[in-house]
Every structure is written in structure tokens, then in C-alpha cells.
Amino acid sequence: MDYTMLIQVNSQKTVRLLYNLQELGLMKVLKDDVAPVKTKLSDKYRGAFSEEDAKSFAEHTRTLREEWNNI
Fold this sequence. Notes:
By secondary structure, the protein is mainly alpha-helical. It has helices at residues 12-23, 41-44, 51-69. It has one domain (12-69). The protein has three helices and no strands.
């Protein structure tokens, strides 16, 4: 049975345990020390709002900031 999983290891003890399981033939470590890909928020949410909604949100934000500065 081949079943691939992506897991996050939180301690060095866990890493040793995984390699011990590999030595027993119970599993195989395919890659180690794989860093997650970090996506910029601007790229992640690009296109999430319609142009009209984005303009409305920007105007609302500007109004709130002006009100805050007038306090």
C-alpha cells in the first residue's frame, strides 16, 4: 500500500522516530527539511474583491481613518 502524507515534525525526537520506522521498513522518508512556501498576502488575495467592492472598501477605510484622526 502506497500512501503519501505531508506532516509537520515538532521535535528532534519525532525525527529520530521516523527514521527508526524507516529502518524497520514500515515507512520511507521521501524528503527532509522541506520549508513551506510563503505566499505574499497581496498575491494570495489578488482578485478576491471585485473592482467595485475594492473601491468601496478603500473609501470606507479612508473614512474610518479620518474619523479616528479627528478624535
